[in-house]
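Example record

Each entry pairs one chain with its bound ligand, ISJ.
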Amino acid sequence: MSKPKILFIDAYDSFSNNIVSLLTTTLQADVDILPIDPPELQPQAPNFTQKLTSLLRRYDAVVCGPGPGSPDLPHDVGLMRYVWDLEPAHLAPVLGICLGFQSLVVSCGGIIKKLKTGLHGMIREIDHAAEQPYLNEGNIFYGVPPFKATLYHSLYADIGQESIPANDWTASKWCSPAHLPDIVPLAWVYENRGDYIERILMGMKHKTRPFWALQYHPESICTEPTGHQVIKNWFSEAVRWNRENRRPTDPSPTSLSSISRLPKSSTHGAKSGLDCNGHNASNHFPWVNSNSQLASFGLNHHYGSRTIKLPIHIEVPDIVEILQGNRQDFIILDSASAKANRIGADVRGRYSIIALDVDETLKLEYRTGDKYATARCSRPQKPSLGDVSEMIHFSPGQTIWQLLAEFWTKRRVTSSEDSAPFLGGFMGFTTYELGLEGIGVTAHQERQHNRPDLCFAWVTKSIVIDHTKGTLRIQQLSPGESEGNGWTDFIIEKLLTSPIWSDGLRADFNKRTQLNQLTPPSTPDSIFAKAQIQVPDADEYESKVRQCQDFIASGDSYELCLTDQTHITRSSILSATESCPLTPLEPGKPPQTPWQLYRSLRSRQPAPFGSFIRLGGATLISSSPERFLEFSADGLCSMRPMKGTVRKSSAVSTLAQAEAILHVPKEEAENLMIVDLVRHDLHGVCGPGRVDVPKLNIVEEYASVFQMISVVEGRLPANDDDNDDKISTKKKKEEEEEEKRKTGLDVLAASLPPGSMTGSPKKRSCEILHEIEGGRERSLYSGVVGYMDAAGRGDWSVTIRSLFRWDDETRKTTTTAANNGQGHEQEVEVWHIGAGGAVTALSTAEGERDEMFTKLKGPLGVFDDEA
Ligand SMILES: C=C(O[C@@H]1C=C(C(=O)O)C=C[C@H]1O)C(=O)O
Ligand SMILES: NC(=O)CC[C@H](N)C(=O)O
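Structure tokens for the complex follow.
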């Protein structure tokens, strides 16, 4: 028997791929995905109905999915509302889910209203018609054991349920209301609102047509699997209806180009040669294979390394200070919390990675909206020749991700069993705005700058520190097998003979005197004293929280990660072209140089994903606790969304106390919403049935806060996977070839911006946040930082709890000296710190304001820290 075919109509929800996965795995079906507003199927077009019916005929059944907004707004439901009203001869069996459910209710004459308080990520016992034989005909809940399900909605169906007296409820709850004869209720949830019980319709069927619908989310990780029986029952009913009504079907594949598939289901009708980012596989970048000076950078390199013991007193910045004076660019991924975690099983941030000689490496840069990327490299050996740069033009359909993938794949190096997590390869950052471009949100005003949204350096010389083993590995990718050796010996010699290596106490003294000489001599301390700090206005922030809650109440979002930025303006220590002095902290003085700010932040707030980055005109100093995505060369992708924050205090100082605060429905729901969103992102690249949640809502301890995290894992389709579709055509082979190429980079590209920084559904939430946050760029904040190495592995953190500045954001101001009243001109630099938190229906404005200021406190504190 051929596989069932289902059409899923997607209303731009961040849970859609989870539903497609559920349908594919529980029904062994092929599921095609069609957005609610495909350009080829416009309701105003003259032959729309005919086109729609001929499309539906190709499927055994249709699912109308969840989504932001209201079923009363045509723009929010698009195509959905037309499937209910087709002529009887053209009907197809349909299952509506959430927004799809509400759309069916509206088509039957029901009214949609706002719940007293939205129920997002709330898990409730479903009261369903399991024992109603008289409803047996089409009762998809019949015989289903009790189960709990996750809800994600602000709106509900009013079918007159409130007017039924309590003592009539049991007898009437499964009866069609007299004024809405087409609606047969099949399931309810009862929500205790304190002074009354709200009755919320959770399931229905249409009296005469083949339509069923669920208000809850059957695909959520917290909906009990017992509930999956409802999906099976629905599909049996759909098949029965098709058979009994001799519904005409059309086995030919559709030619609609808006239709897509998750990877690894069978191939009919899927886009050929296009991956999740719309790359066309056959449309390669000629630049990558050209022999231009930059395109051949790092090709045919071999790996060499030497490992030495790391003395206990040596820290990551010490190593950089020994090896990297007088440089402009830096990339340091610093697990500053690792030392604290050395005892015990917690290996978050086990490694630190220092890129060496970043000035001399190749950098690839891209700015959103551009149709090209730039490769650049400086020539320190021949400074008179200046920097080299090449423009790499995109042809239609090409993206920066494809360029990176091609460049990366050509530089593959195999790793041995005991290799470091990073051998060399890409390291860098992306901005929040790069992520917005990927999901089609491009509402930003004309940009007043020319900064890159992505800057990756191809790092060939690096150091990996294993904090658990206490070792340091010096490694190089170099053209000849043994060419690296001389260099690694030289670096080891330099480390071992440096004064601080062998003698911790003496070294500390030496380090200070030695490096003090690097401090620009002409910088009077008074200049630094007055940093102007502009923090968000507390009342305004609270009012923004309330605006978010209005959008949540109207059904436009389920959760919004609201953020704001603090700006610190102070006299400039570093101009764009200058090297970055590695000045140590000076006792009794606040940090001045970027390096001192980094040293200060890492000791104030040691974090597993800290970093110091100077690249592409940006300086980023981060103490991020949040891993975004880690992937292995063989396709295991692990994401670690973080939601739920408690500040450490005398009242909350132990893990048990924090757990008591965080294991409450509000916090768990916030985290669950992002877990389901991340599952969707991963399903989109890994395919149906390939995503699991090994950890849900685990509380972890950090330097100044406790955080709740979850772990979501996806397995990319492997090369040798069985495809149960037996049809072997040339086209299928090509598609399989294409899918084989999926790597962690595809997951990275498909998952930005990080869901924990947007809220859900991602696209609509980002549009709303853009409006509420005043259209300002978040820039590096809410982007990601990390690496993907030459062996195919990667690790990325979310850029939070950090400060950043751009070299081009300096200006001249005139200041008046206090002692003589004279004005003098000086250059100022501006640092930015983003902070925020997830707003839900259950948030309070004061609570969110406090959370934002708590998160701001750590990074902001470095400006008046005294070493
Ligand atoms: C928005 C921030 O943090 C995000 C929001 C969190 C929350 O709402 O609990 C937790 C971690 C981050 O994903 C921030 O640090 O500025
Ligand atoms: N998940 C959904 O489909 C939600 C539907 C609708 N936007 C609501 O909030 O009620």
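The mean pLDDT is 89.
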